[in-house]
Specification:
Layout lengths: L2 E6 L4 H4 L10 E6 L8 H4 L8 E9 L3 H4 L5 H5 L2 E12 L13 H9 L3 E7 L5 E6 L5 H15 L20 H6 L17 H7 L17 H16 L44
């Protein structure tokens, strides 16, 4: 068979041929009464076909295009086409249909796109209907040549020989002592030697016999004097600055360039240590 004609819905074979039966031997005529039966129409009649088809025609009434035409069914029918074969959808005008109502033909072009077909033409039939034609992509000769070349390359690949002899692994063993000493065959040292330690510097850091605690009451190592000196320094830092010019408390207009109170508001003598807490009450 070179051509298959599928009548969808209530469209009969006689209606499609204007009352005359199709007796050609190279044409297969199939009926798909429901929307669900369109995808398997050729599969169910596979016993009457031999090989792939050159063309597939789908005939459907304009009034049944929405209810009986399945846009996803063409993907199942395309596999029965030869590369470069055509698939056409014939929308037959229904004499009983309302003239003012026009069916949506966009579902046909959408079905071509989903099935991987390339739209070729849209023609208006003599009976008032329309014929949409699409073509299946052809296999390029270059692709076939590339596949044949790749198969030859796969056959001519270099063979790899694997050895399962465990005795060969003894020559690759490395002495752990050589790794630690840096004495490898490449003389580059796979492991870095341990860093050098300054014993005298470490002894000075560890000279604190108190172990981080406070000095003892009868301290003889000098830790008590060191802590007392640190306390005296802190007290000096907390003591307020004594003004030598007498203008520090009057404000920035009277203060010297190096005054430690620059930027602070004026204050009374002895209150320079007070900190104003200016929080917004709102």
């Amino acid at each position: 068979m070179s051509t298959a004609i599928i009548h969808v819905g209530s469209l009969s074979i006689a209606d499609a041929n204007n009352g005359a039966a199709n007796t050609a031997t190279n044409i297969l005529v199939v009926q798909a009464p429901t929307k669900e039966s369109l995808s398997g129409a050729l599969r169910d009649n596979n016993a009457n076909t031999t090989g792939l088809l050159h063309s597939i025609e789908i005939h459907v009434k304009s009034t049944e295009l929405t209810s009986h035409y399945d846009s996803l069914a063409l993907a199942s029918l395309v596999s029965s086409l030869v590369p470069g074969g055509t698939l056409s959808v014939h929308v037959v005008a229904d004499s009983d249909a309302d003239v003012s109502s026009t069916p949506d033909m966009g579902s046909i072009t959408t079905s071509f796109l989903l099935a991987g077909l390339k739209s070729e033409s849209e023609q208006r039939a003599n009976n008032g209907g329309r014929v949409f034609t699409a073509r299946k992509a052809e296999q390029s000769a270059s692709n076939n040549g590339n596949n044949a070349t790749s198969n030859k390359l796969n056959l001519n690949k270099t063979k790899v020989k694997l050895s399962l002899d465990d005795d060969d692994d003894d020559n690759e063993l490395i002495d752990e002592d050589d790794l630690l000493n840096g004495n490898t065959t490449s003389n580059d040292g796979m492991l870095a030697p341990p860093p050098a330690v300054d014993v005298e510097a470490r002894a000075k850091l560890n000279s604190d016999d108190c172990g981080g605690r406070k000095a003892c009451d009868n301290c003889t190592c000098g830790r008590a004097e060191k802590e007392q000196q640190e306390k005296n320094d802190e007290v000096k830092k907390k003591q307020p600055h004594k003004s030598s010019c007498g203008n520090c408390a009057k404000g920035d207009a009277f203060r010297c360039a190096g005054c430690p109170y620059l930027g602070m508001p004026a204050f009374k003598e002895g209150e320079e240590h007070l900190i104003l807490k200016l929080d917004d009450d709102v």
